[in-house]
Amino acid sequence: MSQRVARTTLTALALACIATLGHAQQAKLKVGLMLPYSGTYAALGVAIENGFKLRLDEQGGKLGGREIEFVKVDDESDPAKATDNVNKLIKRDNVDVIVGTVHSGVTIAMAKAAKESGTVLIVPNGGADAVTGPMCAQNIFRSSFSNWQPAYAMGEVAGKQGKKKAITITWKYAAGDESVAGFKEGFEKAGGKVDKQLAVPFPNVEFQALLTEIAAAKPDVVYAFFAGGGAVKFVKDYAAAGLNKTIPLVGPGFLTDGTLEAQGESAQGMLTTLHYADGLDTPRDTSFRTAYAKTFKLQPDVYAVQGYDAAQMLAIGLNAVKGDISKKAEFASAIEHAKIDSPRGQFTISKAHNPVQDIYLRKVAGNENKVVSVAVKNLADPARGCKL
Ligand code: BEZ
User: Fold this and answer.
1) Contacts for 41 with CB less than 8 Å, ≥ 6 apart
2) Partners of residue 369 on adjacent β-strands
3) How far is residue 91's CA from residue 33's CA, in Å, rounded to a whole number?
4) CA distance linking residue 310 with residue 99, whole number of Å
5) Mapping DSSP to helix (H, G, I), strand (E, B) and coil, where does residue 99 land?
6) How many Å lie between the centroid of ligand 1 and the Cα of residue 176?
7) pLDDT at 17 over 50
8) Nearest residue to 302 via CA among 315, 317, 292
9) What are the beta bridge partners of residue 194?
10) Which one of 28, 117, 261, 341 is most buried, by most CB atoms within 10 A?
């Protein structure tokens, strides 16, 4: 071998070594998981984390070529603690990405901090319309829904069924208020009228006085937004008061998702609308459900799907930038142009970074929210106030 050839070969070898080392030394990607692990939404937080980790496992423990390190925070669904909690993740723990949360009020505080710091935020539930409305940003994404989406669909369904007079009941906070507004918009467009809007403070579950008011008013339909432990209590109380025999109770699917074992007889026959359902019977959904049940010894629900898809969206963005999440524009563009192959069915991400997705009409049968039909195909949130 001539000296020149030997030198060239050595240089090539050295470069290959440096490239390999560089790759191997790419630090772990720090993911801040800010979710409720206590309180009325605790089961939702666990399902989201399970779904996220299932997808990570399917990818061999890496996303975009990087191993993942988790930093976990229990946000307690408490908006008063939200700014401190999220700022600890951003400023003390230096996370690269935040995944969270469930409660709309906490989600709004997280979106504000993410917008100020530029940290990537993927929201795996919190439906606050503002997050993909006036607060929309290049670094903020949602793998779930806006509060408007399933609510508007339910309003349309109830109106088309010929229901004329509705009463709404909810927890008094952003998610409940926006869910009721979405239902009212769909219902009144379809010829109905919301007569009365009732509310209790979050996370109160003292419903008796309001159920008495509903019984006296005798509407054609009651629309309710509750989720987690509160949804279990409300649906049971509604049935115990005998109201389910005379006034149909409907809602966004959170009213019966992940709650049916506890609600039992009281939920049977209820109609709800949501971007996920039991009995979709697609190969994609079946493989997800089988893997989830095998790993966690639990049936998945909508929250598990949203966690799973948060990991899918993060992987799509990271793959496009080879793990370098500082390349924000390329990261965002990859997600904006993707078709996400979700167990719920394929969906895309709007310019405001919210899923454009089918909303299913579901009916409770046994422990399942069985799909009845697609209530609204490819429903996009109006993204009012988003200036991206
Ligand atoms: C919310 O606060 O956005 C929310 C919480 C639980 C289920 C659905 C929405």
Assistant:
1) 77, 102, 103, 227, 228, 229
2) 364
3) 15
4) 8
5) strand
6) 8
7) no
8) 292
9) 166
10) 117
Say if residue 127's pLDDT is above 90.
Answer: yes
pLDDT digits (tens, 9 = 90+) for 216-235: 999 999 999 999 999 999 99
Selection from 36, 63, 34, 49 nearest residue 317 by Cα: 63
Tokens of 317: 């963005």
Among 15-24, 130-139, 183-192, 297-306, name the one with the lowest average pLDDT: 15-24
Indicate if the pLDDT at residue 6 is higher than 60: no
Share of the chain above pLDDT 90, in %: 93
Sorted by where each begins, the domain ranges of the chain are 29-145+279-349, 148-274
Domain range 29-145+279-349, CATH class: alpha beta
* Closest approach atom of ligand 1 to CA 44: 6
The residue among 124, 65, 121 whose CA lies nearest residue 96 is 121
As for ligand 1, residues whose beta carbon falls within 6 Å of it are 102-104, 125-128, 147, 175, 227, 254
> Which token pair is 378?
């490819």
Q: Identical fold at 29-145+279-349 and 148-274?
A: yes
Helix (H, G, I), strand (E, B) or coil at 308: helix
**Which residue shows structure tokens 């089918």?**
358
How much is the pLDDT for 25?
54
Mutation to probe ligand 1, out of 77, 103, 145, 381 (largest number of atoms < 8 A from CB): 103
pLDDT for 12 beyond 60: no
What's the pLDDT tens digit per position in 142-160?
999 999 999 999 999 999 9
If DSSP codes are grouped into helix, strand and coil, which group holds residue 209? helix
